[in-house]
Design goal:
The chain is mostly helical. It folds into five domains: 38 residues, no CATH class; 86 residues; 87 residues; 133 residues, Intergrase catalytic core (hpI Integrase, Chain A, Orthogonal Bundle), CATH 1.10.443; 43 residues. Helix content is 54%, strand content 4%. A three-stranded antiparallel beta sheet has the order 5-6-7, with helices on one face. A two-stranded antiparallel ribbon has the order 1-2. A two-stranded antiparallel sheet has the order 3-4. Helix 9 runs antiparallel to helix 10 and helix 11 crosses helix 13. The longest helix is centred in the middle third of the chain and has 25 residues. The chain is globular, with a radius of gyration of 29 Å. The protein starts with a helix and ends with a helix.
Length: 461
């Protein structure tokens, strides 16, 4: 027997026809086995010395789960077998991993495991500042999330913190002192202050910082380009600005900086056009129906993909909104499942509702090592305590042939034709103006519908 088949046989267990216990079935030999070794009167092999589970054994006669507990205790107790109280939640989260073998590999080879050991032993302070100062900052991010999810570290907006660190590095690398004196107050008091305000008012699990970074990069790049040509912002002319706008599609984002600078007398006022509205193709109706049919009826698909794909293709939801859904936004009443993407519950009937209920009941098949056993996220991600990212969710759907923007464009006209603009705006998180335009384009103007309905009633009477 080859090694993969041998390992699969060791891990295969079923309910014994005689005693009713879930054990390895050995009699009669072959795939028809329905009796455990104890009931069959044959020697029991590969039984865990700690818990008695019949499974593939790892170290010193222990199963993967018991081996994981022993290694995690050794790691987080500094060899004393006593896990510090502040690390107890992290210990429980690591040992509750859905895939103990993956967690064992992470403890053995993961860079973050040694950092957790340093924190537990007191060699590294359990603070965000200490982890920020670590020479391997990216390697420190994963244990940071474990400690934050466990309550050892206070919650922190990581995207906002990283943007602040990125800004400090950008200003430190700025070569022209005059440009730095202009960019620093704009970035600090205009862009970052606005970003902090929007972050404080938002309920999103991740703060979108790309626009803020692009504004700051444009603000730093334009004066640097002028300085390389022996010019200053005060001497800048429209020809210089036009030349800058040809450098790339994001060059227009210098508009905020120049408006700020003009108000403070650093340059003359400029008029800069914004970006053009992006238009793209939509998934064809036939392709959308075929994709939706597969999501509805192919039970072999992962519930994560079925639910996310249906919310995109049938309900027009954005990937970022889908990824941030919580279990509290899903309710079940009278055998009906509802999801609340906005202020109101939306029914999810049939197979999508069943998949949604299954996802809440069983959770995702894989989450990151150190993730809490209980989470409020409908789609928990690889980082402990965080939901899946929109990009990861998009990759999963693309593997099924579902593309986010074309699929959402295909869903919007049908939704706009069936509901008033106010309901559409709540469902899709649109402002009133775009929602009204979508309803008009879909020939679903509810004022005309009400007028037609009134005329029909008059004629009937």
């Amino acid at each position: 027997m080859c090694d993969p088949c041998y390992n699969a046989a060791l891990r295969s267990r079923g309910r014994c026809a005689r005693c009713g216990e879930v054990r390895r079935l050995v009699a009669p030999p072959g795939t028809a086995a329905d009796t455990c070794a104890i009931c069959a009167g044959v020697p029991v092999t590969h039984s865990c010395s700690d818990c008695g589970t019949q499974d593939k054994l790892y170290e010193k006669g222990r199963c993967s789960r018991c081996s994981l507990r022993r290694r995690a205790r050794e790691l987080l107790s500094a060899g004393t077998s006593h896990v510090p109280p502040e690390m107890a939640e992290a210990f429980e989260a690591i040992t509750a991993a859905r895939q103990p073998r993956s967690a064992l590999n992470w403890l053995r080879n993961g860079a973050g495991a040694s950092l957790l050991a340093d924190v537990a032993a007191g060699r590294l302070a359990a603070t965000h500042e200490a982890l920020d100062a670590h020479p391997h900052r990216r390697g420190a991010d994963y244990p940071r999330h474990i400690l934050t999810a466990a309550g050892t570290l206070p919650p922190r907006d990581e995207e906002l913190a990283r943007t602040g660190q990125w800004l400090a590095g950008l200003l430190a690398r700025a070569g022209d002192p005059a440009s730095r004196r202009l960019v620093q107050p704009f970035a600090t008091w205009q862009v970052m202050r606005r970003l902090r305000r929007s972050t404080a008012a938002s309920t999103r699990p991740r703060s979108p910082t790309a626009h803020a970074r692009n504004q700051i990069k444009a603000a730093a790049g334009f004066p640097a380009r002028l300085a390389s040509r022996g010019q200053s912002l005060a001497s800048c002319r429209h020809a210089d600005l036009d030349d800058w706008l040809t450098t790339g599609p994001g060059a227009w984002q210098v508009r905020g900086f120049l408006t700020w600078a003009a108000r403070r007398g650093h340059c003359r006022p400029f008029t800069i056009p914004g970006p053009g509205r992006a238009h793209g193709a939509a998934t064809s109706p036939d392709q959308r129906r075929a994709l939706a049919a597969r999501l509805l009826h192919d039970s072999s698909l992962d519930p994560t993909d079925r639910v996310a794909g249906c919310l995109l293709l049938l309900y027009g939801q954005q990937l970022s909104r889908i990824a941030a859904l919580t279990t509290g936004q899903v309710t079940r009443r009278d055998d009906a499942v509802f999801v609340r993407p906005g202020q109101h519950d939306v029914p999810v009937p049939g197979p999508p509702g069943a998949a949604l209920h299954e996802l809440i009941r069983n959770g995702r098949a894989y989450t990151g090592v150190g993730s809490p056993a209980r989470t409020r996220w409908l789609f928990p991600g690889g980082m402990p305590g965080k939901p899946i990212t929109a990009s990861q969710l998009g990759e999963r759907l693309r593997a099924l042939g579902i593309y986010a923007m074309p699929g959402r464009r295909a869903a919007l006209p049908g939704l706009a034709a069936k509901m008033p603009a106010a309901v559409l705006a709540d469902l899709l998180h649109l402002s009133p103006g775009p929602a009204v335009r979508w309803v008009h384009q879909a020939a679903g103007d509810w004022s005309r519908y009400a007028a037609e309905l009134a005329r029909e009633r008059v004629h009937q009477t």
